[in-house]
Amino acid sequence: MRQFLSDNAAAVHPRVWDAMRAADEADAPYDNDALSRRLDEAFGALFEREVTVLWVATGTAANCLALATLCPPHGGVVCHREAHIEVDEAGAPGFYLHGAKLILADGAGAKLTPDDVRAAIDPIRDDVHQVQPHALSVTQASEYGRSYRPEELNALGALAKSRGLGFHIDGARFANAVAFLGCPPAQAAGPCDALSFGCVKNGGMSAEAIVFLDPAAAALARYRRKRAGHLQSKGRFLAAQLLAMLDGELWLDNARAANAAAAEIADACGERLMHPVEANELFVRLTAAERDALRGKGFGFYDWGEDAARFVTAWNTREEDARTLADAIAAL
Amino acid sequence: MRQFLSDNAAAVHPRVWDAMRAADEADAPYDNDALSRRLDEAFGALFEREVTVLWVATGTAANCLALATLCPPHGGVVCHREAHIEVDEAGAPGFYLHGAKLILADGAGAKLTPDDVRAAIDPIRDDVHQVQPHALSVTQASEYGRSYRPEELNALGALAKSRGLGFHIDGARFANAVAFLGCPPAQAAGPCDALSFGCVKNGGMSAEAIVFLDPAAAALARYRRKRAGHLQSKGRFLAAQLLAMLDGELWLDNARAANAAAAEIADACGERLMHPVEANELFVRLTAAERDALRGKGFGFYDWGEDAARFVTAWNTREEDARTLADAIAAL
Amino acid sequence: MRQFLSDNAAAVHPRVWDAMRAADEADAPYDNDALSRRLDEAFGALFEREVTVLWVATGTAANCLALATLCPPHGGVVCHREAHIEVDEAGAPGFYLHGAKLILADGAGAKLTPDDVRAAIDPIRDDVHQVQPHALSVTQASEYGRSYRPEELNALGALAKSRGLGFHIDGARFANAVAFLGCPPAQAAGPCDALSFGCVKNGGMSAEAIVFLDPAAAALARYRRKRAGHLQSKGRFLAAQLLAMLDGELWLDNARAANAAAAEIADACGERLMHPVEANELFVRLTAAERDALRGKGFGFYDWGEDAARFVTAWNTREEDARTLADAIAAL
Amino acid sequence: MRQFLSDNAAAVHPRVWDAMRAADEADAPYDNDALSRRLDEAFGALFEREVTVLWVATGTAANCLALATLCPPHGGVVCHREAHIEVDEAGAPGFYLHGAKLILADGAGAKLTPDDVRAAIDPIRDDVHQVQPHALSVTQASEYGRSYRPEELNALGALAKSRGLGFHIDGARFANAVAFLGCPPAQAAGPCDALSFGCVKNGGMSAEAIVFLDPAAAALARYRRKRAGHLQSKGRFLAAQLLAMLDGELWLDNARAANAAAAEIADACGERLMHPVEANELFVRLTAAERDALRGKGFGFYDWGEDAARFVTAWNTREEDARTLADAIAAL
Fold first, then answer.
1. Contact at 8 Å (CB) between B9 and B214?
2. What is the pTM of this model?
3. Which candidate in B52, B128, B132, B225 is best for mutational testing of the C interface (most C CBs within 10 A)?
4. Do residues A54 and A123 share a domain?
5. By C-alpha distance, which of A114, A62, A94, A54 is closest to A239?
6. CA proximity to B314, closest of B4, B2, B1
7. Which terminal residue of chain C, N or C, has fewer Cβ atoms less than 10 Å from its own Cβ?
8. A190 and A63, same structural domain?
């Protein structure tokens, strides 16, 4: 089986394994161990500014713990109608934010522009009867594999600031966006207040990082993380994964590999592509018969509605598999 | 340093590592993988009845997801005043149970008897002004390392049933209790509705099991687990840890080793012991000077109030370290 | 000033005042007084079946306490995108339902058909990643003053039943719907599980009724009402309002008066009407200049977007004022 | 029946009725009416400083909305073990504060001293595993009818400030405390951040005031009030009650009358009194036989445990009834 279902269950990178094994010896519990205490500095170097970093096991927890520092229970978080936090997190924001509302905006490619955000929030009356927006969350790369350019994030950040909105980025595939953009990570994160920095989909096992720009927000999130049962006692194994990723730019190497595989397939898709491929996901117009044909050749992928399919590459997608899929699509 | 601070940060057992490595190849995400799908059967064999099992990363999450199936937001959970869920989980039950209340009971050794429970709930007026009890939670082994006998659990279960209370066991150190009691696991769990089955403190890395007797409760908990950000996409690595533990009774071997080390130290403590040692924790009367002396010899442990210390052994506590500590205490 | 802004701040009907004054003498507190204890029977007679009735002070509380009996915290409530619970209750459902989600459906006139409901819920994958629908809530009369016919409610109820959804009706203006439909109240409530029966907008002061078909749901709501701070100690004054309304069909007389005033104005609006007038609200296409002209003549009303206005009549709208407004609109 | 069960269901004072009737004519809805807009000034004059005031229907709602501005969901509120918010509000703080914890302190007469508060919070470890205190709530007069002296409140306020705790007063019977203390209201409220100012027990019908010292907290509470379904559309009737109370010191006159009746009974109780009578509640040692005898003479009151009774006087307790009760107790 040549697997293009998702990157979320891929194997763990050998260097991540090595780092975890190296962390086996007992150290202080929770995040008092030596590895966890190195995270702020390691991510600070990456983002070229002081940050405070918390590990958690999942992207859902990362997103929600970050958002809970930006939006009170009676407030709202603006996000795309197809954002992962709205569609695929089982209402976790409602849980973590104590009933706060997701205010849904529309935008091409599951991305939002300032105009899209304004269209969602300008109609909200400034009174106590309507839920007021308190934060903005966007996904980098987006749910359709589109990457925000630095200037787009700056424009969103400026709007957020002018409206008093906290700014969060769901970076479950942040690495793929940075690899695509070729810019410094800080630019790919724009002027956000908190970033969910993905690792699991990129060769990690069970660690994501929440990168906070505001230490006070991070301090708050520490209490909330424990309260949510996400403070693991052997947290050193999560820190080890994250540090291994940053070490020698493994995170970027992995993302580049996934992106390269996606690009190779994209080249074969031509007009079939529903969205430009700017990360490691492809949304491809394919009839049911065509999908059957591909599956018959051993390719695994999800249907995307009636007339399309989604393919996702991973850090360990084999060059040969990508080329074979590209050829198979081209041959349809 | 000879470490007796806690078992919660100990190294991971080699067979757990092996099982995790063996799970590396991509499988279906979340809990759709082959290993996760084996959990019900494996734990069913252990408990000699049908059960439904969910993995989560922490004991706090296990406890809270279990309790959330037994108590509504407007209800209360009876527990010991020194229960972990009351004292050391940062208010997680308040979060997961949406403001439900912990109704605190007193009992010797952090254990509860039916009389203790009645003393806590009988004064509650049966009207809408007071929070009504809906569940009972006890810890096996208790926060003071005491183990409930099967007949004690049966009596608690009978009371719970007669009062319409769900019955939960926090088994963060369930293995140590079973190893101490020498009875079948089912008897050490009594007639509970849900059990948090600990693994992390017993040689695991990042997996605990919630064992549900009622499949409907488990189905509910599945939604809540995802909603809490605890559904890891590479869940196979959690399942692997749990299965490795059950394989060949590793969980019992590990617990027996920890208990044996504790017993050896206990023998040296005599009258200093504040509680009988029925698992792997020791609470020992020691003056500040005595504690200083022990620390001077390289032993690590926590103070317990002004005049005592807590020692915890782990699956990998070295026989030599336990003996040396025993000798040092005896020589005080 | 001839006021057509809303019915929600109108004067209290004299018979309601009389009933409140008659309730002045101390009685048992909360809902243990004689008047509160008569509610089940009085509403039971009205709806021709056994019901359990709780008073609360506001429609928001009524809606949310009802819905909280039908949908768990991890679930979703299907409602119209312009439903009051979505648009004008400050996120109260998120608060009362502990983060449950409103699943938004579209439908003409702020009404929903079974097809509309299906269009909203059929795309929801039946897995733990997406919030599953647990309840349906519709507004009778709708937010655009449209009344559901009994057969429409029956069809919705049948769908709800087949999908396992609880069925709630927000009847803030239920009286106006019944007055319009001319059918027995039970038919205007359809096969719902719980009805928020409005009184404040219809000549009451501070009382709404939640009518439960299931006594167990009502019992649950009693705890939740107290927990929400809605159990008033002098609850007899709320019961008095509700009983006064039912006495001699005052509730219907008041609604008929409001509807008649609305109908008179509607006749003058002709093509200007955006929605058929089936209760006591009118949505009328009027340019800014026309609205200025009407306001210049002393009429009070809200703008409705750029090119329309909303007029609401009340139980005490003077016949003369309605006629004058009708004439003024006709003369534009 | 001579009623001493509670003041919470007493008749409404005629001047409150008059004020409500005078408010009948339609005005702007919610709290945009002329009466609601006078509250800040009226209470500001009473407390001799700028305040922001919100009406709500119940003391439970007042307490919880106030506390929700002082304590985050992951925090704790220190209160007496017998505080109304702990014992008799059905877990409402857990609901409104999203799972925040009540940290229980002990103190004589249901009052707290700084030492009592310290005894409750000093043992709390300053780490993420334990719920940290964020606010302090005391009851004036206390649940045993004891009134805090101004200097006692100042000492509590100083402690609260030094520990970073918000300071709330549950003043369900604040009027009785002020009447007893004979000091300016501001001194009876001490340096609190928010006060629940009771009216219902003191001759009102359905209005309590939350008096905020911090306008930002009040602004937050406005959203939360609506979100909790406590923003009544005919709010003018609540404002009318509160203004009637303040007008000509009716609130103090009513409280003085209740206190005087209590004092008359207290004089007859002598050694039977469990607590000094500093408001309008009496806790009196009476055997079951004595209680039977009193009930046989037509007095209504609650048992208080096995060997005592609670008597509560109200604004309209008849002088003759108080004297008769006093005589009957003296004659036992």
1. no
2. 0.97
3. B128
4. yes
5. A54
6. B4
7. N
8. yes
* Nearest CB neighbour to C98, from listed B98, B128, B222: B98
Is D94 in contact with B100 (CB distance < 8 Å)?
yes
- Residues A218 and A264 both lie in one domain: no
pLDDT in tens, D230-282: 999 999 999 999 999 999 999 999 999 999 999 999 999 999 999 999 999 99
Let me know whether A144 and A56 are in one domain. Answer: yes
Looking at residue A22, the DSSP 8-state letter turns out to be H
Q: Is the dihedral of CA A130, A134, A139, A140 positive or negative?
A: positive
- Give the one of B98, B128, B226 whose C-beta lies nearest to C128's C-beta: B226
Asked if residue B316 and residue B232 are part of one domain, the reply reads: no
Which residue of chain A comes nearest to C132, CA vs CA?
A: A90
Tokens 């600070």 belong to residue: A44
- Are both C195 and C274 inside the same structural domain? no
C101-105 vs C133-139, strand pairing mode:
unpaired
Q: What is the DSSP string of A76-142?
A: EEEEETT-HHHHSSTTHHHHHTTT-EEEEE--GGG---HHHHHHHHTTS-SSTTSPPEEEEEEESS-
Flag if C74 and A90 touch (Cβ within 8 Å): yes
Task: Supply the pLDDT for residue D2.
Answer: 87
Contact flag B100-D91 (C-beta cutoff 8 Å):
yes
Q: Please, what's the largest Cα pairwise distance for chain C?
A: 59
A96: chain B residues, CB-CB within 8 Å: 229
Rounded average pLDDT per 10-residue block, chain C, 332 residues: 91 98 96 98 98 98 98 98 98 98 98 98 97 98 98 98 98 98 98 98 98 98 98 98 98 98 97 98 98 97 96 97 97 94
How many CB atoms lie under 10 A from the CB of residue A123? Answer: 9
Contact D11 C25 (CB under 8 A): yes
Phi, psi of B297 (to 5 degrees): -90, 5
Nearest Cα residue to C263 out of C322, C316, C210: C322
Chain B residues with CB-CB distance to D under 8 A? 73-74, 76, 87-91, 93-95, 97-101, 128-131
Q: What is the ipTM of this complex?
A: 0.97
**What subunits make at least 3 CB pairs under 8 angstroms with A?**
B, C, D
Point out the domain boundary residue: A198, A220, A250: A250
Q: How far is A229 from chain D (nearest CA, A)?
A: 10
Closest CA to D253 of D303, D316, D327: D316
3-state secondary structure of C138: strand
Residues A91-142: tens digit of each pLDDT: 999 999 999 999 999 999 999 999 999 999 999 999 999 999 999 999 999 9
The helix/strand/coil state of D77 is strand
Do C236 and C33 meet the contact criterion of CB atoms below 8 Å apart? yes
DSSP letters for B250-273: HHHHHHHHHHHHHHHHHHHHGGGB
Any alpha helices (H) in chain D, and if so which ranges? 14-22, 39-47, 59-68, 84-87, 92-96, 114-121, 150-163, 174-181, 185-189, 215-227, 236-246, 250-269, 288-296, 319-330
Distance CA C105, CA C81 (A): 6
Count of domains for chain C: 2
Which of A215, A250, A285 corresponds to the end of one domain?
Answer: A250
Q: Which helix (H) or strand (E) holds B238?
A: helix B236-246
Pairwise CA distance, residues D201 & D6, whole Å: 8
Q: Which residues of A touch B61 (CB under 8 A)?
A: 228-230
Q: How far apart are CA A218 and CA A202, in angstroms?
A: 24
- Domain housing B265: 2-8+252-330
Residue in chain B lying closest to C128 (CA)? B223
Nearest CA distance, D128 vs chain B (angstrom): 6
Residue C130 with chain A: CB contacts under 8 Å: 87-88, 90
